[in-house]
Amino acid sequence: MLSSVVESLKNPGVYLHDVDRVEMLETHCSVVFIAGEFVYKIKKPVNFGFLDYSTLEKRKKYCHLEIQLNRRLAPDVYLQVVAIYEDKGEINFSRGEVIDYAVQMRYLPEEWMMDYMLKHHTLTVEHMQKLGAWLAKFYQSAARGDEIAPFGEWGVVAGNCRENFTQMREFITHTITPQLYEALLYKTEQSLEKNKRIINKRAQENITCDTHGDLRLDHIYVEPQTQRLLIIDCIEFNDRFRYGDPVSDLAFLLIGLHLERENDLAKALVQSYFRNVCDTTGQLVLSLYCSYRATVRGKVSSMKWAEPETEDKAAAKKHAQECFLLAYRELASRDENVAIVLVAGLPGTGKSKISQYLQNEHNFTHISSDKVRKGMARDQNAESGGNGFMQGIYTPQWTEKTYSKCFELAEESILKGQRVVIDANFKLQKQRKLFYDLAEKWHIPLVICHCTSEEENIRKRLEERRDISDADWEVYQKAKKQWQNFSEEENKLVHRVHNENFTETTQRIKEILHANFLCERQWKNSNETAEDDVCIVF
């Protein structure tokens, strides 16, 4: 029956108003027909457990509920429920036996959609400020009561979080590494326990309400003439997905902005929301709910990756990995925050000692280009060719292979939820760009520590060194001539480290890490609070 309805509604002549052409969109649970100035949405006769449209009466019920709930945020968009009839084998909207129902909506142009505006660079901080204030007003007036309040209690919140990890197990080694799965699970349980009292207190204070449930940029529209906001497509099929803490609903939208690298817009939205709502504890649970929402999105993308009909499996996998990594970062402390640190500089400037310090004291995975190069040479039975500059395993081809391997090892570590320090000279811009691109790919911070030292000390170190490097004074001098200075854009990431006194150097490294939200501060002024050490992903 569904196929005959779909085929009929694709015909412009079936509608009771003028239609030139019909555009059809399909999801797992519905089919949408854009017919001129109106949109018709029918529900598929499916039962997924959490969603049940399997009978005509259920589809009628949920069509009416969809209109009722969505009129809260888009009052003049959701028009009516219309019956679909069959008369002597003909599908129509006016006569015969009722065989299905559709939600009739006013058509909203794609150009009004916030997702479209974001891609075309017209979505602004002012839009986010207005949206934050509007959502604050919506949540304050949303339905509350004894039936809704329990959905905000700690037991329900914890159950929702834990359900994710149960459903994610089948994707371990596919879209999430075992290490990141365990790390994210640990941080989630830790955050749940830490916030248990606050979560229950919020439920007791009747903060839990009937929210939207699917707050995404592609569901939010801006009318150009009036700048009026409209939000469509709330969840009507399952109260459990809609009842909850409004901060959890807000987190859904924030995660979408984070994934689009729109941190300034996310920050504006959060600040506007909390400025317009009487909520003294909401910000304390924001990271937990953001992590939960990112985990859900990662799980959904993993399910999409596993579906046989998914054409771009690589894109689904990448999105899932990105979501899981973001979920972990939302809960990570500064000492755990995933990041890339490039320790760059000419031979003999103390790069390896600084990198070892970062490994031992700040939990970084140390990737040494010297060790990687020698390991590759050993695996391939290659001769080092002595320590001659650009000879043996130091030719440009070997160097390029070495940096590529460092990149590969760094990405493996990142996807385990680990922070990495790359110990190499990085004398060429293309070598540095490899890791700029890696940081951009996974949306993680990158810091460059450019090591320098007095040449007399460099020469002394090179003459006395007993480590894995083959570099000597002659190599230093030749490398110095090849050094490509940092560009103006690169200099935004560069921190100079003049490495003469190692005690002073480690203090400088701590300052650099703290300034980039990569370590807790070891000292405090009297007017500072613990909030200064919270790591928020903006």
TrEMBL record:
- GO MF annotations in UniProt: transferase activity
**Which InterPro entries does the protein's record reference?**
Aminoglycoside_PTrfase, Cell-binding_unc_protein, Kinase-like_dom_sf, P-loop_NTPase
This protein's source sits in the domain of life called: Bacteria
Give the matching Pfam families: AAA_33 (PF13671), APH (PF01636)
The protein's name is Aminoglycoside phosphotransferase
Q: Which UniProt keywords apply?
A: Transferase
Q: Which residues form the Aminoglycoside phosphotransferase domain?
A: 61-274
PANTHER family in alphabetical order: GLUCONOKINASE (PTHR43883:SF1), SLR0207 PROTEIN (PTHR43883)
